[in-house]
Amino acid sequence: MHAAVISQQLVNGLALGSIYAMIAVGLALIYGVLRVLHIAHAGIYTAGAYLGLYFYNLTGNLFVAVLAAMIVAGLIGALIERFVYRPMLPKPRIVALIASIGLFICLSDLFRILAGPHQLAFDVPALAGRFAVAGVTVTGADCLILGGTTAIFIALWFVIRHTSLGFAIRAVAQDIETAKVMGIDVDRSVLAVFFIGSAIAAFGGIMVAILYNAVYTSMGDMVGYKGLALIVIGGFGSMSGAVLAAFILGITETVLTTYADIPMSRDGIAMAMLVVLILLRPQGLLGKS
Q1: pLDDT at 100 (0 to 100)
Q2: Who contacts 92 (Cβ-Cβ below 8 Å, separation ≥6)?
Q3: How many angstroms separate the Cα of 265 from the Cα of each of 3, 48, 285?
Q4: How far apart are the C-alpha atoms of 78 and 74, rounded to whole Å?
């Protein structure tokens, strides 16, 4: 096996892992604050792809389209928190989980009604070029995914660790009642978490749509399942654990489907690997025993 081939697969795996990380980090952030499994997050991911395509066709500018789609998706996430989850917080967590599943199904049907049942192309000619770096072929989409993911994670780290909003979010994640006693605006912090997590998921949806030149109503289904598994593997509520698990999954999935003669689909191999990881380390990669 040539080193160049391995390097190529690593680049492909990192790009795929970045996409998984986009949805996993938002799920981990939301779970860390509310202890709610936000199934409808996969619907926000799909909404991001549709919004990105809409704004790109409207403006012809990819940067503007991505920014606008992330803002609108963030607002949708904030509305979901305000009008769906917040009234349900005093109730058992299973109530919010069931509502989230129902909302995800409704969003999928809404996409079908508004955009039609057929797959749409998300063609960005500026990202179609390929160039070689040290024997590894990289596309413009790969560069955008890796560069955008890096920028988003750096910005997220800065906000969480070095701003008053980040302090409030960490305090709420630690103990909501204590945070209220300390005078922290819990509702504002939770709303910010949903906005940020939804905007990040939208970016992931746009990147997948560009990478595969396709937007369709069910594109969030399997990614949603994997995202939930990733926050378990990473350690419930651990954003760094979810990101680590996402990159492990992306690289392993790419390598196994390329070199291993396994009579299973790509998604089947990925989910089987996730089950094995959960069995081996049920507390998660960065979770506590």
Answers
A1: 92
A2: none
A3: 26, 26, 25
A4: 6
